[in-house]
Amino acid sequence: MDKYLKIVVIILVCLISCNEDEDADTGDRSEYRFFQDSSISIGEFDFALIANGTNLVFEYYFIADDEPNIADDEYSERIIFEIPPNLNEFSISAPELSNANTFFDKYCFCVIEGSIPVEDGSITGIKIDDTTWEITIDIAFEDFVTQTRTISEQFQLATR
Prior knowledge:
The protein is an alpha+beta fold. The chain has helices at residues 2-23, 96-99, and strands spanning 29-42, 48-52, 55-63, 75-83, 89-93, 103-108, 116-117, 120-129, 132-143, 145-157. It is globular and about 45 Å long.
């Protein structure tokens, strides 16, 4: 009888563990942040990097929910750009987007050829206070086909 009780307990523990994993759906998430005393540079493999500098660098970062039963389905993306630190509001549109080092990056098990320069669209921002900006991004870029992103969120001060 003791032997059967142990088997039942092991099966119950496995079932409970499996159910917890299925219920642990975290969903997609997005991060909206900016960095002081920073700049954007192009690093290895033509990917944009946030480095030390004198500007404000804004970063939108999206992480798609991972499906545990599908191999290599992980996906995330980001949009970064920089502005001078003394502004309280700004409006950038083509062709100034390249002057603001605006880039789109994707991270996935797919064809990636470095950061994609964003040259079409607009980005506007209003400084709420020293730690918060209201940013609206409405851009288009070429990643084999024309893609667009529209984002309107508050970006929070972060540290590197």
